[in-house]
Each structure stands twice: as C-alpha cells, then as structure tokens.
Amino acid sequence: MIKIIKDEPGHLLIAVDVSEANLENSELFKSQVTQLFDRHKKNMVIDFNKVEYIDSSFLGAMVSILKHAMGMKLDIALVSLQKDVYDLLLLIRLDKVFKIYGSYNEALLHL
Amino acid sequence: MANTSVKKILLVDDNQLFLKMLARAFQKAGLECINAESGREALALLKTVIPDAILSDYEMPEMNGMQFRQQLLTDAALADIPFIFLTANTDNELMLKGLDMQAIDYVFKDTPVKVIISKLNNLLYTVQKQQELSKNELKKAAEALNVRSIPNKIPAVKGFEIDFWHQPYQDIPGGDFIDFIQVDERYTFIVLGDIMGKKWMAWFFTFSFLSYVRAAIRFCIFDHNYSVAEILQKVNEVICLDDVLKDILSSLSLLMIDNQTQQITYSGAGDLPLLHYEAKTKQLKQISGDGLLLGLFAGSNYGEQQISLSKGDQLFIFTDGMIDFSGNTGKKSDYNNFANNLAPLLNAEMPFENIKKSLFEAAAATQVDDCSIISIYKTS
Known about the structure:
The structure holds two protein chains of two kinds. Chain A is of the alpha/beta class.
C-alpha cells in the first residue's frame, strides 16, 4: 500500500503504491500511515505520483491522518499529484487543508 | 449471479507449474487470478488488493498454509475472505484443524481442474447470495423504520421546477443524502450531502447528518435567521462535537429558495461547484462555495451567495459520483467532462426527465460511486 522512500531527520518520504485509492485500501492506508506517525514522530511527505483516482473514502482517510498528525503537532505534505486528483482536491477545497507541492524537492523548500 | 464483475482469486502455491496451470484454467473460466508463490508473498500482495477468495496450498516451505491462514485471521480486513485449502494430504486430523480455522473447504490437488472451478464458483455464488440476503434484510428494516436519506416527494415551488436523480452505487444505499424542507409558504430549503465513504457504513451516518441539518434549519427559522451559511456553521460545530461522528466527514450544498423574491441563497461545505445554465447566453457557469467539509474543523467559516435565475435558466447541484466514471484506462474524476457532456443537452432545451435518461441512466455501467443530482429550473 505504501512504500517508505526516505527517512530523513525532519521528515519521512513515503509513496502511495496503488493507482486506485479507494474504499478497498483506505483503511489499510490510514492504519499504515498512522503507525508511521506514531513510530517515527516526524512530518510526512506523501508522494501520490502513482495514484490516478481517489474516491471519497480515501479522501476521508487522508483527512483523518492529517487530524492525527495535527494532534501530534506534525504536518503532512502531498506531492506529485496527477492532474485529475489535484483538480478534485481543488474543487472540494482540500487544497486549503493540505499542503500540496508539485514535487518532493519543492516540498523540501517549505518543510 | 446478479453481480457480473470479474471475481479475483488469490492462488498461493510454491509449485510454480501447478500455479500456472491452475491460473490458466481459472482465467479461461472468466476468473481473474493473482498468483503468489509463498504465504509471505501473498501477505504482501494483500496489502494492495483484496481478492474475492483465496486458494492456498497447505504444504509450503517457510510459512505453511496453516500459518498463512493464522496470519489472515489476525487481520480484520482479511479474516473474512473465503479461504480454501489446496492439499495433497488426506490426513483427517490435519483437515479438521484447517476447518477449525474457518477455512471453508479442502480441495485435493488431484481433483480435476473443472471440479475445482465449479467448487469455487459455487462458493462465490453462495457468498454473494448471503450478502444479498443481508442487504435485503437491512433494506426491509430501513423501510420498516421509515428511515430514508432520499425523499419520495419533490416540492412544488412557485416559479421553479425542482427535480432530482439519484442512483446508489451497486444498488446499495450509500452516503449521498437529499432533502427538501418547506418550512413555510415562503422558504424552501434544498439539501444535498455526501458522506465520505460508500455503501452501508456511509448510509448509516446520513441519518445523523440529516437530523442535524434539519434541526439547524428549524432552530434558525425559529430565530428568524435565514442565513444558510450560519446554518452550515451550526451543523459543523455540532458534528465536530459529536463523538459518534468522529472522523466522519460530509460535503453539503445548502440552498434556500425564497419564493417571494424568487432568489436563491447558497452555501457549500466541501461540495463540488454548482453549474448554472444561463438560457440567454447558452453558457454553463460554475458557482463555487467556499466552506470546508462538515466535520473537518470546529470553527470553520462558511460564506453564502445569492443566485439569480432568469426564466429558462437551470441550476445543477451534484455529488462527486456524477463526475467519476470507469473508462478504458481505469477510474477517473473529471468535472469538466461532466459539464461538457451536459452542456449540449441544455442548449437543446431538453427537459430534465430526458437528460436523466440520455445522460445519467445511460452512463450507469460506468458508475463507480453513489450519484445524485438536483435540478432547479426557472419557469417564470
């Protein structure tokens, strides 16, 4: 479901390893990322490059993880979103909730 | 079977030749196969895909079938996937042990492949029938309690023609909810929400959200407060305080029609932009709300805006299922594609009834989520 790409001093870079992020894998995603937050206690950069479709169950899981992170005074950045996925986040105003960057390198400038 | 989608079977066997032979036969029989050569490989695969059934060899090095089954039983997401042991062993004690681990059946490896496929199809059919029975029981219970998240009546409002179309995903009630509330002769409220999630789980929460929305509207009206933004604000506050709704989010479009001024006031919470068809210019324009999803953060602000419709104008309010579809390259969300498909029908002045048939119902096969759309047409 997720791959740990980099474990840096201030943050963890992980990638979502499915092309359809939906009801079937949203709970797994939520539990895996929540565990990573609890274990590493670091900000999280999540690479969505592979994800071509996100449904509302998965968006719900993402928001739930963000709330978990905020409770730990940590943050999440989403990077490399495909256009359709980015457009959807924009339409429902989740861009006001998540920090979204074009690439990991761009996110690094703001972490 | 009612559900004709291709069933996925996870085959676990360290014997590559047997795995390939079985996979080929399964594919010929119309089943999709995912192969794993060990229990560990299967567990890794199960992190990204949930099959309809698992067929696992018993005798495997490192992790045998019994240990693999044990692992699955510790994970709530995997424990209920129908599981069959494949074995060359006829040891009754061993078979009993396997069946005690909630394996549905044993299949001996020397059983003809056709028989294995028949057994598997019977199993999938039984599971599906059982699910349908449970679904019908729940539907009956909901009907008996007279709880519905979709209205059975459309209100008559002077100067406007209101209509809607709703199609739950796979015919199972889901997270979309609609309500029309005529509080008095002057004001009519239109509610369209979408609980994030699908099927029964989302459906159960629609009633909590609907109750809060209905109560907030009534309380505001008692206080002569006709601000849809303030109503949303109150709903959001109370949802954020409700422990039962922790982590449950919903989009909401709330509109109020004042039939005296013929004006519509709108406030949106994480909803898709509405589409306003202007008959005069024959243009379809977006109207975006500014509020965040209900249940996201306490203290969120919601704005409101006036929408003026001229004669022949039409306003569409819809949930994300309307813009999602399954194409040749997988599932997609495409708001502009939806608007582009709708626009020509409006220019042709097609009544909503016909739009439903030609655009929405025709696309039912590509549906991937609950779909709801409300149309408000200005008649005078």
